[in-house]
């Protein structure tokens, strides 16, 4: 679950950015969505490994729904990344004064010196977008890890059943 670490770094970059600031609340919502998807897919695939012969249709349905939910998780991570990028660039452009005449600091505190605020703000914006992109890539890697684990466990069950029939 390395995606959590990179999403927290994106959140920190967003909160420290004086022009984007409290827009970081959307990253908290993104974190909650990703965490719920991860737990849901993980538990479905975990529970589906413990099915017996009479419950095979339930375990098949759990595996299928786990795969479907993992696909929705990946699609939503791409959509949330695009939304985050567009909104943070838009908020930054409006608040920094690039599109308007005056800059507006969007945070109740400012940890960046006033003379370097535009440079640091741009660096934090790019770093936040980079960490969010890295989170999206890690979501795809996590999905593949979960599905490989499920695939290997189903192959082991098949081989055990095959060995039982041979003996």
Give an overview of the whole structure.
The protein has helices at residues 2-16, 25-48, 56-95, 117-166. The chain is mostly helical. Helix 2 (25-48) runs antiparallel to helix 3 (56-95), helix 2 packs parallel to helix 4 (117-166) and helix 3 (56-95) runs antiparallel to helix 4.
Q: Would you tell me the overall average pLDDT?
A: 84
Helix content: over 70%
Element-by-element helix/strand order: HHHH
Structural class: mainly alpha
| Unreliable segments of 5+ consecutive residues | none
- Strand composition percent: under 5%
Task: Quickly list its features.
167 residues, mainly alpha, 77% helix
Short description:
This protein is an all-alpha fold.
Give the SSE map.
Layout: H1 2-16, H2 25-48, H3 56-95, H4 117-166
């Amino acid at each position: 679950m390395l995606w959590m670490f990179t999403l927290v770094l994106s959140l920190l970059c967003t909160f420290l950015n004086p022009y984007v600031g409290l827009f970081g609340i959307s990253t908290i919502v993104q974190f909650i969505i990703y965490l719920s998807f991860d737990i849901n897919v993980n538990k479905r695939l975990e529970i589906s490994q413990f099915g017996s012969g009479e419950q095979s249709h339930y375990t098949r349905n759990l595996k299928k729904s786990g795969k479907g939910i993992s696909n929705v998780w990946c699609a939503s991570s791409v959509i949330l990344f695009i939304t985050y990028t567009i909104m943070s660039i838009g908020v930054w452009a409006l608040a920094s004064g690039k599109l308007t005449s005056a800059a507006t600091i969007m945070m109740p505190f400012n940890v960046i010196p006033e003379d370097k605020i535009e440079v640091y703000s741009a660096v934090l914006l790019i770093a936040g977008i980079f960490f969010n992109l890295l989170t999206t890539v890690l979501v795809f890697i996590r999905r593949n890890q979960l599905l490989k684990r499920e695939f290997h466990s189903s192959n082991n069950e098949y081989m055990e059943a095959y060995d039982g029939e041979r003996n």
